[in-house]
Amino acid sequence: MKKPTKESNSNHFLRRESSSSSSCSLSSSKLSIYLVAVFVVIFTLFQIQSLQIPPSWSLMHEKTVTNYSCRLSNSSCHVTTQEEEIEKSMASKLRESVTFLPLKDLRYANAAMKGHTWFMSSMQDMHEQGGVQYQHFPSEASGGRVLCLKGRDRRDGARNSYALAWPESLPHNSTLTKGITFISYNHYDYHNIWHGLSAMMPFVAWHIGSQCAGPTRWILYHWGELRTSMAPWVRTMLEATFGRGPLDIEDFDRDGSDGGGGGDRAVTCFEEAVVMRHNEGGMSKEKRMEVYDLMRCRSRVYCGVKPRGDGSSIGMTMLMRDGARSFKNASAVIRVFEKECGKVEGCRLMVAYPHNLTFCEQVKLMSLTDIMVSPHGAQLTNMILMDRNSSVMEFFPKGWLELAGVGQYVYHWLAAWSGMRHEGAWRDPTGDHCPFPENDRRCMSVFKNGRIGHDETYFSEWARKVLGEVKRRTSVRTVSGVCSCN
Q1: Handedness of CA 340, 342, 345, 346 (dihedral sign)
Q2: What global pTM score does this model have?
């Protein structure tokens, strides 16, 4: 056999070395790829975990370590951490971002009471079926923000303004008032008891639906301008209804500013605020009756009025007026109703001028009244204090039917809303002379405050009819005694 030569051995060794080197190179490449893959997986898992941990964890940890170090050294130190700086920066930005808008939005001056109204026009109302329309701050609708006002101007509502702010980032120069604040918008007059009551009764509806929650203070606006008083009758009615003592009506003048020129732009924010701007709009008849039942009952409790003892008696009350829309011959009108009342067993006629009576005297008088006889006017608002199913007889001067518009029917509406019976109206066919054609709207300025005549025959027949109907109903008189809002 031929022995391998030295050269052949050398070649064989080189081939083995080359093969070994190639294997090592391949293994090294696989290892590198494996290590890279492991690194990518670990990095990905780390990123996923970091997404699940709150961003502030590391900052909180840093803050904890810093505070712990301060305690260990037993020295007083204050270290501003990165988290605190971020929180301060965010609070400052939120505070600076608070935007005030005019309470009275002049863009809607021609439709002041429609839709969102021109009062706080950017805000939407909460409204459950049949319930009151209102705004509530803070709430889910406000994103947890509270209501803030620069609202002390009494001459120009466009100079008053409102904004929403986070409780932790209130505007500069602001004060946070505690408790519940009721904020009312009234397009008319708080000193007219009908318009005042219409603006206030939605708050009673909210009170009923909020487990008797009541206000710490009230803020009143008319056309965006601050008002600081209301008719004493309305004020006492609210004190009786809410049972929280004298009403606190905010005037923003406790710091000595005049509240008239808007020079002091201090901001007032409210821990909790309820805003009403639609009066009783949107409320169902049932809900309105529930509200008036509560107001009637609590007024009687407030005034110490006891239930009537004799269910067979009939009280007929004439609420009289002086001046505008009074009877021209009041004595003659009184005699007609006195005569007809005298024909009915148990009937008692009472004649009163409400402006001479206190609130509680009016409450007591109405508790004894089954039939109210009165000219058109705010005194008719007292009807809500009668028992349910009582009757109302109303009288108008000449010209109202043709020229007064829908406002002449407000006491028809109030009777229906409070559970009373409106027995119709008598309209005087004669009155003061108007220099214009009688269907000219300018005549309303003549007829509005006209006085009322009488028709003895018509009044007698009308009174006889109503007395007969009431006599048949007295056996089932409805006494409203529900004083609870739960």
Answers
A1: positive
A2: 0.80
